[in-house]
Amino acid sequence: MSAHHTFSRRSFLAGTGAAMTAVGIAACGNGSGNGNGSGSSTYSLLLPGDTPTDWTRVRDAVNEKLRADLGFEIEPQFINWSNFANQSLLKFTAGEDFQTSLSARWLNIAQLIEGGSLQPMDDLLASGDYGNLTAAVDESAFDANRWSDGNVYGVPAVNSAARIHCYVARGDLIDRYAGGEITSFDQLEQFWYDVHAGEGIVGYVKNNSVFDVLGAPTGTMFAEGWESPSMIPLYFSSDSLLFVPSRDAASSGVTDAVPFWEYQPYVDALRRARRYYEDGIINADRLNVDSATAGALFKSGGAATTWAITDGANTSAHLSQLEAAVPGASLVTLLPFADGMDARPNQTFQADNLVVVNAAAADAEAAMALLDWVSIQENHDLLQYGIEGTDWTPVGEDAYEPTSDYANFPGYALSWRIPLERRYSRMSESEQAWFEWSKDYNNFTQDPFAGFIPDLSAIETEHAQITAAIGEYGNPLWAGAVDVDEGLDNLKHAVEQAGLATVQEELNRQADAYLAGQ
Amino acid sequence: MILAAPAVILLLVFAYGPMAGLVVAFQDFNVADGVFASPWAGLENFRFFFTSGDATRIMRNTLLLNVLFLSATLAVGVMLALMLNEIRGKVTKRFFQSVIFVPYFVSPIVVSIFLQAFLAGPGGRGGLINDAAGLFGIPSVTWYTEPGPWPWILTLVKVWQLGGYMSVIFLAAITAIPEEVYEAGEIDGASRAQMAWRITTPLLKPTAAILLVLGVGRIFYGDFATIYAIVGDNGTLFPTTDVIDTYVFRALRTRGDFGVTAAIGLVQSVVGFVLVVIATMVQRRYAKETSIL
């Protein structure tokens, strides 16, 4: 090689190799649990929903306090509700490093526990290091959510005894079309048709959900649930096939669970959903919109009612945007039980929201420390309502009034604690009444299968194939988008081929064993 | 050799290296245990796909949609290139070239929003197409629950996206055709249309052939981004739109099982490889003069 060559072959190859190695090593970083330049660690969390307005400002205030108190910061990932179940599952199974997430039986906690993705909490809770957390969450709430292996895998983040699926409706339209009051499902249905005819808008809007139609025990299109709210179906996971247990299972000890289509009220509800779809009563894009888009239609005045749950967050979630779009609009929370507030719906009392700790978390103790930290009133308020004086002001003993755009932090995925919650100062009277009602355990009937949590390890492949069939043939049925008889035939054929008999037998075997142990 | 080194290293690291991950297709893979400690599962992961009852339909959709996409974009690409080539004004030519090329840069998510506005309005009722049809008394169609028209709708979308891109490739090939060939045509009294059909089109065959072979190589890869952005998890459209990639993605999201998805991906790769070999052999056999492989 001549002397004037400044870059030899060997140097070139070595340089290229070194550069690629450096790039490779840099690419291997996962971006969690990293230093942040201030000497403290930053931990990732998974939270559902859209990023709250002004989140960056509030997060900075939270992190400033967290850094001073615990020596770390948080950087949550907000994941759209429509993708949350799938994306969080994928992040868990891919071993991604984040601290906590929302999970529950209606999400995918069974799969996560089965895959060893969650950190058992009993030892950590018993260590005595998290006194604020154990003081804010009653021990019975942990026990009600103990998994079949005896472990606690999540902190119940609830603010009432039970949450009932219901409706939030336009009060101004109820005044105009329903004489100011709706007390039965028949009246509600008539209201939908009248509003549709009079205003040209849909009666009820939501993205697709099985529980709208196959109530558990109530559902927005499940009429029987408002007459007799006693049916809670059994399932390995809620995105898979729902089974109906025998009504005398508790006394006979024989579950005899059958697929949902053998329970006539569920089939009636499917036919009702189909009729609503064809009559323009429900939105026709349930299969191809996400929850935020569907919610936006209600908030912009394009629907008379939308889905709600008795968690005290309905008015705050909708009112300000609705008022901006429709001046003079108001909200009413509707639970049209035939027995009104004397209804005693069945409940399992399993938490809808569990904050779980990732087994692959960089620091599980830091995750628990965070859950403990948000169990202190001052920290809880800062995270959920923002900076006092800037984002909110206290109203009375237990309410708050928002004074900025910061709203709708998903506290149910991290910080909801019954003794610490504040009530939205503009909460509608109807919501306040039903929210108070839902806090009382005496207003509910314990379901015979309350503590039953099936283990799907024996039928994993069949369950996955049935879940795929439900995604393809079940979802269009819940949306009312296909003929019920034809859709059910397709669904039955697909799930039978996927191993219905095996899954049904396994569910009954486990449920019978559960009943025998009661 | 030195100049080739970076490319060879890149190929080894990013194309051949990851193939070691295919071992996951034969394992009951668990991230916590890793590749070395996860138990072997034999062909169990392949069983999920082939016993699901979906395999035939998904393979058929993948093939059918890609054949439609490939043939339509190639045909439209050639046609647009011929038309652009006939435009004499330089500025006009550049303008139209840019206009038809722009859709290539539009995100599939934006395309899906356009399509929703065209085919379904707020609340899923209406949309520009239905509104226009209504003016002529034609009943509206709930497009997002009718699987039949979707292969054609997706093909239209692909042509809109890729027609301009393809035309630029063919236009480049056209400019490489020697001017003397056209002069000879002129002397023989050929019209512009005859020259386009008899001279330009046949001379584009090598370019079309290489694009075709490259396309066939990817024929078992569904156009995931576009199809998933538009169809999503809408099960009513699966009979005609569910392709291997969307199926794999859905299986991974809902099951979180890397073994099954790796197994389906392996099937996809093997079939794709076989198809490339067959396409190359056919080309060598029947169009040897234009084959460059």
* N-to-C CA distance of chain A: 86 Å
Which stretches of chain B are low in confidence, meaning pLDDT under 50 for 5 or more residues running?
none
Spatial gap, N to C terminus of chain B: 22 Å
CATH topology of one domain in chain B: MetI-like fold
CATH class type of the largest domain in chain A:
Alpha Beta
Strand segment count of chain B = 0
Structure overview:
The complex is a heterodimer of chains A (518) and B (293). Chain A is α/β, with parallel strands linked by helices and 518 residues long. Chain A has 2 domains: 34-161 and 351-421, Periplasmic binding protein-like II (D-Maltodextrin-Binding Protein, domain 2, 3-Layer(aba) Sandwich), CATH 3.40.190.10; 165-344 and 425-446, D-Maltodextrin-Binding Protein, domain 2. Chain A has 21 helices and 17 strands. Chain A has a 4-stranded mixed beta sheet with strand order 7-10-6-11. In chain A, a hairpin with a 5-residue loop joins strand 1 and strand 2. In chain A, helix 19 packs antiparallel against helix 20 (484-498). The relative contact order of chain A is 0.16. Mean pLDDT of chain A is 89; it is low at 1-5 and 24-32. Chain B has 293 residues and is an all-alpha fold. Chain B has a domain at 63-257: Orthogonal Bundle (MetI-like fold). Helices cover 68% and strands 0% of the residues of chain B. Chain B is built from 15 helices and no strands. Chain B has helices at 5-16, 34-37, 44-50, 55-86, 90-101, 108-119, 128-135, 150-175, 179-187, 192-203, 205-217, 224-231, 238-241, 244-255, 258-286. The two termini of chain B are 22 Å apart. The model of chain B has no long low-confidence stretch (mean pLDDT 86). Chains A and B meet through helix 1, helix 3, helix 19 and helix 20 of A and helix 1, helix 3 and helix 14 of B.
